Amino acid sequence: MTGKVTSNKMTKAIIVTVEKTKLHSKYGKRFKVKKKYAVACDDSSLYTLGQVVEIQECNPVSKTIHFRVSPMVEA
Fold it and tell me: Is the pLDDT of residue 59 over 50?
């Protein structure tokens, strides 16, 4: 999943907002759905607000953190 960094105020975690488009089952209209995820990282100061990151699911790190920042492959 990819999303934008919304908050980097925690020391070892960031908040990432993932936006998806869904289709209404009856009317067929497309609409956006946003969800925030708490994501584990080594140092949150490396990430700036609005930066696009890729996250992947992992074993629970804490009560709310179930995702990690996956390393981006530079082309």
Answer: yes
